[in-house]
Structures are given as structure tokens and as C-alpha cells.
Write a structure and sequence with these properties.
Blueprint (H helix, E strand, L loop, with lengths): L1 E5 L12 E6 L8 E8 L2 E9 L6 E5 L11 E2 L16 E2 L1
Parallel strand pairs: 6-7
Antiparallel strand pairs: 1-5, 2-3, 3-4, 4-5
Length: 94
């Protein structure tokens, strides 16, 4: 799950925070997507944010960075939802 935020409102900082960026060429849209990962226990394994040409001026910030997250207002990639996983009530479905 992601929070979609304006680029101008994003500052990533933290004590000892180290981020690694890479271009993901293997996307469903065919676009190259920038992904940033945080270093956890010596490995760049924790997703932090994504930037996509489909969302110009926006940053997709990973909701998993927080212990408590708000209820989603929209679901995307619903065609790839697992058959056992229900739709999120009251969320727009794309």
C-alpha cells in the first residue's frame, strides 16, 4: 500500500538512514520506475518510495513505514488481487 504525495512535500530523513535507488525495468506498464530502498541490517531490503512517469510530480511512499496506517481510499491493480482476498470496502476500485 502506498500514500500518493506531492513531490514538494517529501523529505526523507532519519538517524543513520541510507537509501539506494534503482530503475525497475520490469513493470506491468512498461515504464521505468525509480525505487528507493532503505538499508536494514546491512541489506537494502526495505522499500521506502517509488516514482513513476505515470504519476508526474508525485511520490508513492510505502505505508508499511508506519505502525498504524489509514484506511485506503482507492485500490489499484485489482486485476492481480488474489482470489481469496476481498475488495476493500468503500475504496475506489481500479
Amino acid at each position: 500500500m502506498n500514500y500518493v504525495l506531492n513531490d514538494s512535500g517529501i523529505t526523507i530523513k532519519g538517524s543513520g538512514l541510507s537509501l539506494k535507488s534503482y530503475g525497475d525495468y520490469h513493470t506491468q506498464s512498461g515504464n521505468v520506475v525509480l525505487r528507493q530502498l532503505a538499508n536494514v541490517e546491512g541489506k537494502f531490503s526495505r522499500p521506502v518510495l517509488t516514482k513513476s512517469p505515470d504519476f508526474l510530480g508525485k511520490t508513492l511512499l510505502k505505508a508499511s513505514l508506519w505502525d498504524n496506517i489509514s484506511r485506503p481510499s482507492q485500490e489499484v491493480f485489482t486485476a492481480r488481487r488474489q482470489s481469496w482476498e476481498p475488495a476493500i470496502e468503500m475504496a475506489k476500485q481500479d
